[in-house]
């Protein structure tokens, strides 16, 4: 494509029928490869004839692998649960996401395919990108870093924290683009205003890992920054991304999407809300019918921006009680682990709220034997287990609701 085109490549404007035929036509080779090279799929797809999986109906007969299952599966077959097609020593990076879940990366150009989303957000060759996603253990920083370098950008590896130092780097180096969570961008801009630092070079933003309510998008726009969202996972890489049309999120070109009824793996009708299930054609980590745990729905028609791939409505919640707090997944099993480590606790419930578009996590704990230091100790354990901080609120037994919720996400994104 030419430098002036709004499209990353010609794949984005393919005839949808051609795209569908090409993806379905590639399924038999993917399944044969997964059965041959990934022991977990050799077991899960035992008896499946790869040559027969050439339609969506045939694909829907295969078992679903849930992201939440990986924690248990990997414990019995470290580090990747038998789902990777390369040995650990053949990877370029091995990441650890909360859970923990271990994720591989091979040393191929734009392994996570995030360049496409960056390009849609206005990032171009020769630009400078300030990357405020984390580079430590979790893969988000590397995902955006590799995508930007595939386009031909210089990257400032800001990471998480060191707010004042990041502000000074933006002031001095003058990047045109930002990637990271929307809340960190807000914090950086507010700190810049407080310090009198000129951050006006920032014009484009690509954000993820947190909801972007209209109020926050408008607040960031008031600073002169047009932000778009991308949606992905540490297992799959890019799944979908916003375009300047701001009408849904366009599916990445290297994936087959299904929206299924949670708990069944049965595809639902277009427009109906269900769980996002993805088949990835990544030969290193060939995930077949991988259920993300996130809810969405297919939008009818094509995007006004001209891209012809399927669109989804974006993130519409979780199929389970798992949630994200300040860009980190927190699982009900982790709350149980915190309680297990403190015999003084009877049970606990994580309540997540939002104040001024920033996440607030409070772990409400029932205890029979509180002491002056218990809240501090529980707080340290929570941070060690969940990789994020929470306020600790202690109460007498019987004070917490008995509605079955271990994680109560009360955020309203308006």
Overview of the molecule:
This protein is 27% helix and 26% strand. The longest helix is centred in the N-terminal third of the chain and has 22 residues, at 16-37. The strands form five sheets. Strands 5-4-6-7-8-9-10-16-15 form a nine-stranded mixed β-sheet, with helices on both faces. Strands 1-14-13-11-12 form a five-stranded mixed β-sheet, with no helix packed on it. A four-stranded mixed β-sheet has the order 21-20-19-22. The two termini are 38 Å apart. It has two domains: 10-319, ANL, N-terminal domain (Rossmann fold); 324-409, ANL, C-terminal domain (GMP Synthetase, Chain A, domain 3), CATH 3.30.300.30. It has helices at 16-37, 39-44, 56-59, 70-76, 115-120, 140-151, 163-173, 182-195, 214-221, 332-340, 374-386, and strands spanning 65-66, 93-97, 101-105, 128-131, 154-157, 177-180, 204-207, 226-233, 237-241, 249-251, 255-261, 266-267, 274-280, 290-296, 298-299, 311-312, 323-325, 328-330, 345-355, 358-367, 391-395, 407-409. The chain is of the alpha/beta class.
Give me the secondary-structure topology:
Blueprint lengths: L15 H22 L1 H6 L11 H4 L5 E2 L3 H7 L16 E5 L3 E5 L9 H6 L7 E4 L8 H12 L2 E4 L5 H11 L3 E4 L1 H14 L8 E4 L6 H8 L4 E8 L3 E5 L7 E3 L3 E7 L4 E2 L6 E7 L9 E7 L1 E2 L11 E2 L10 E3 L2 E3 L1 H9 L4 E11 L2 E10 L6 H13 L4 E5 L11 E3 L5
Helix pairs in contact: 7-8, 8-9, 10-11
Give a concise summary.
The chain has two domains: 10-319, 3-Layer(aba) Sandwich (Rossmann fold); 324-409, 2-Layer Sandwich (GMP Synthetase, Chain A, domain 3).
Task: Spell out the key features of this protein.
single chain, 414 residues, alpha/beta, Rossmann fold, GMP Synthetase, Chain A, domain 3, 2 domains, 9-stranded mixed beta sheet, 5-stranded mixed beta sheet, 27% helix
